[in-house]
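__Protein archive entry__

___
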Amino acid sequence: MIADHHWYFWLYWVIALAWTLIQCISGWVYGTYEFEKHKADNSNSGDNRWAKAFHSNKWYTVVAYKLHHALIYGSCSAVGFGLVYADVWLLKQIKVSDASAGTGAIVIAFAVVGVAGISGMLAKLLYKADKLPGM
């Protein structure tokens, strides 16, 4: 039997797994939206036989759009939960008054990236990174 003081550890990871699956579903739906948008853009561009051949292929639709987005969203969520857990663990291991500026920077970075991963924003930032200025 699990010790009474460790039940929160298992609860955290059960919630993390459930939320990661929800993020995978969200990514799947977003991939479907992107596929339909890309398909509509290509159908308006005239005679594009290459795009029509790939968009009529069900395997291409599932792998290139839906599964790809689901895996990215799910992995970003899992990484977010891992970083938040590591952040809390790190804060328990150190004395805050003795921590250096580098340790503080790591704690803040883990927290920011962790929350971005859990919320689904990390995946969206990764997709939009090529549209940022200077990229």
